[in-house]
Amino acid sequence: MDPLLPPGIDEKTFNAALETFAGVVGKEWVFKGSATRSYRDAYAIVDDDYFKPSAAVAPASVEEVQMCLRIANEYKIPVSPISTGKNLAYGGAAPRLPGAVTLDLKRMNKILEVNEEFGYALVEPGVSYFDLYEYLQKNNIKLWLDPPSPGWGSVLGNTVERGVGYTPYGDHLTMQCGMEVVLPDGEVVRTGMGAPPNNNTWQLFKYGFGPYLDGIFTQSSLGVVTKLGIWLMPEPPGFLPFMIAFPREEDLEQVIEILRPLKISMVIPNAAVVSHVLLEAANQTTRAQYYR
Fold it and tell me: Which phi and psi (to 5°) does residue 189 adopt?
């Protein structure tokens, strides 16, 4: 079987590009052939061999991301960046362009800062919600993170995909403050107050000076986000969750109409979630089965 190649790239050029990538990240962090199977979409509604990469490259630093993008430009190789690739059933780690090279950022997994006084964290793409939760617990930090359903997913990845959670901090993009982004030409930009040199308010004030840029790097191909600030909720003295079961599906419209004014008026400050009992039953499993 002929190897899968990026669109418009011959095998000789592709192999030369992979060798150049390996010179930056190390040969053990360049994957091709059967080693790319984990980067496919296991829940694809079409042939699961369609949305697959030609190879994957896993840089370990911002500098390596810069060099990888410059190599991709030199060889005209399309790349598809992922954080942890755990957005399961929504494409996962698979590229949207068949044959693209996956830029896997899971090795960039540092929690760079957590500030309890001001209520924020600064993380790299490979940091999962489990990772950040365990950090807060281990260090007795009285802050809450707001996870989506899959806690093994990336904090950064979920935010730039405009994901949501369940607490009053559930709109993750709204709670984001400050990005570091590598542009397609390899240049690094920092948004908001990260742009001025020697500034200590990068994760405190979203807007900085001039145009607000962060939104153009969400659900886009305009840059690779390598650091992200996220606001965390102060731990409340207590909380009381509610679950209300409705036995008839035909009552769903009326249920929503009851909830809607409560949400609009912020009587319900967090996300009001409607879910089917069969979905909930399928999710009743131990965390250990899916962790990492």
Answer: -125, 150
Radius of gyration of the chain (CA): 21
What pLDDT is stored for residue 242 in this prediction? 78
Residue 32: which domain range?
11-104
Say what the pLDDT of residue 287 is. Answer: 46
Same domain, 217 and 136: yes
In a domain, residue 85? The reply is yes
- The structure tokens listed for 226 are 């390598």
What is the predicted pLDDT for the residue at 278? 67
| Domain count for the chain | 3
Gap between the Cα atoms of 175 and 42, Å rounded: 31
Residues of the chain short of pLDDT 70, as ranges, are 1-2, 47-49, 278-292
pLDDT of residue 48: 59
Per-residue pLDDT at 261: 93
pTM: 0.88
pLDDT of residue 128: 96
Q: Tell me whether residue 244 is in a domain.
A: no
CA–CA distance, 34 with 171 (Å, rounded to integer): 38
* Among candidate residues 101, 79, 121, 112, the one with its CA nearest the CA of residue 5: 101
Element (H, E) at 68: helix 62-75
Residue 171 phi, psi (nearest 5): -85, 95
What is the rounded CA–CA span in Å between residue 146 and residue 149? 10
Asked whether 268 and 259 are in contact (CB, 8 A), the reply is: yes
- Gap between the Cα atoms of 283 and 149, Å rounded: 10
Is residue 260 situated within a structural domain?
yes
Amino acid, single-letter form, for residue 29: W
166 and 142 share one domain: yes
CATH code of the domain in which 81 resides: 3.30.43.10
